[in-house]
């Protein structure tokens, strides 16, 4: 039997909004911690988001690389693709009565030509040097 995340992946790849909505609890709450203004609630908004996405990206493909379950929480590592865009990341989802009741999405576009690790560390630490007005996003 397919897991909930496998069902979600398969319905995404079929572009079957109704099958995807069956994976979600009516009281679903979603958030994207790196983008706080993108949080929303309700299964209706999930349907609206998916319908718009599938209309805009008819070649969308979801790849579930790994997944794990810990009690009522499922973790998934994903690649999402469409022409001109590749996203990768992790979703953490709460499951209630076999449906996704909440989720935290950590999905970001892949930067093919982005900074290497040395450049990224320099950029982050430069922000926190005395005399700089910017504050870094990373503090340890």
Rounded mean pLDDT is 90
Structural class: alpha+beta
Task: Determine the CATH topology of the largest domain.
Answer: Nuclear Transport Factor 2, Chain: A
Number of helices: 4
Radius of gyration based on Cα positions: 18 Å
Largest sheet: 6 strands, mixed
DSSP strand tally: 6
Order of secondary-structure elements: HHEEHEEEEH
What does this protein structure show overall?
With 140 residues, the protein is α+β, with helices and mostly antiparallel strands. It has 2 domains: 4-109, Nuclear Transport Factor 2, Chain: A, CATH 3.10.450; 114-140, no CATH class. The chain has helices at residues 4-14, 17-21, 43-56, 117-127; strands at residues 24-31, 40-41, 61-70, 73-82, 85-96, 99-109. Strands 2-1-6-5-4-3 form a 6-stranded mixed beta sheet, with helices on one face. Strand 5 and strand 6 (99-109) form a beta hairpin.
Supply the key terms.
140 residues; alpha+beta; Nuclear Transport Factor 2, Chain: A; 2 domains; 6-stranded mixed β-sheet; 4 helices; 6 strands; globular
Brief overview, please?
With 140 residues, the chain is of the alpha+beta class. 29% of the residues lie in helices and 38% in strands. It has two domains: 106 residues, Roll (Nuclear Transport Factor 2, Chain: A), CATH 3.10.450.50; 27 residues, no CATH class.
